[in-house]
Design a protein that fits this description.
Layout lengths: L3 H12 L9 E4 L9 H8 L4 E7 L2 E6 L4 E5 L5 E5 L9 E7 L2 E6 L5 E5 L1 H8 L13 H8 L6 H5 L10 H11 L12 H20 L40 E5 L2 E5 L8
Antiparallel strand pairs: 1-6, 2-3, 3-4, 4-8, 5-7, 6-7, 9-10
């Protein structure tokens, strides 16, 4: 599932290409992906302009010129591609939005969605999310305050979007590895030093991954050499049975609260 770095990469790329370009055509191939009748959705978008692209947690919000917003969540397997009909990948698309001769393709939205919502509806959804961890207002002290009184496994906390926004399975494991902490360590048992280390690892991992385009499997457009560059940088995620890059131990895959977890039992500890 795309997480903060992947969605931030998409936000940046979209902002460079679609702002104030009128929408000239809309195709809906899967009505369940949208939140209204297909004809109404299409009629609302034809001629509209995106004036701002925002990312919040794992969401992208396309701010339209009339005040409404397109709310996108890619969920598991969702992808975006921008280009001409000739360039499009050989994949099923659920929605296609044309900006002149360039088309934004929404793919893999079996569970994901693209909803046209009001400002009030958008803010109601965003209001349920925890704080942004890369926000300039986030500090070590504020982060420690978020953890205060929390209980349970570290990974479960990191992926809880109501506590902190944007982290999913991949980066939770990468952050725990960078901090030298087991994903199963109980948050209530973390020392102040471990919490400080965890904060620094969150900042480092999310920033590094964002700068090189996250781990998406497909480029955003023809010639895009950035998107997905983090695929080869993961230290533990999806590396079961491979040697740990820090100490040579063997990466283990297990489950924690129904989620797959990757970690090194030799260099990740309880504190």
């Amino acid at each position: 599932m795309p997480e903060l770095p992947e969605m931030e990469n998409y936000r940046q790329l979209l902002s460079q290409r679609i702002i104030n370009v009128p929408i000239t055509n809309v195709i809906v191939n899967r009505e369940k992906t949208i939140n209204m009748e297909t004809e109404a959705f299409i009629n609302a978008l034809i001629g509209a302009r995106v004036v701002f692209v925002e990312r919040r947690a794992k969401y992208i919000l396309f701010h339209l010129h009339d005040g409404r917003r397109l709310l996108l969540h890619l969920m598991l397997g969702g992808l975006l591609f921008y280009g001409s009909e000739e360039e499009r990948p050989d994949r099923n698309t659920q929605v296609e939005i044309a900006f002149g001769d360039q088309i934004l393709y929404f793919m893999g939205l079996r569970l994901g969605f693209l909803h046209l919502v009001s400002v009030k509806e958008s803010e109601a959804t965003m209001g349920k999310l925890g704080p942004e961890l890369l926000d300039r207002r986030m500090t070590p002290e504020r982060f420690a305050g978020i953890l205060k009184g929390r209980r349970g496994a570290l990974k479960s906390l990191l992926v809880n979007q109501h506590v902190m926004a944007g982290i999913g399975n991949c980066y939770a494991d990468e952050i725990a590895f960078d901090a030298g902490l087991l994903p199963s360590v109980l948050v209530q048992n973390l020392s102040p030093e471990a919490i400080s280390r965890l904060y620094q690892s969150i900042q480092k991992v999310l920033t590094d991954a964002t700068e090189i385009g996250g781990y998406m499997e497909m480029p955003f457009m023809t010639g895009d050499t950035v998107t997905g560059s983090y695929n080869d940088q993961c230290k533990v995620y999806d590396r079961e049975g491979e040697p740990c890059l820090r100490d040579g131990g063997t990466i283990i895959k297990t489950e924690l609260s129904g989620r797959k977890v990757f970690y090194c039992p030799d260099c990740q500890h309880e504190a």
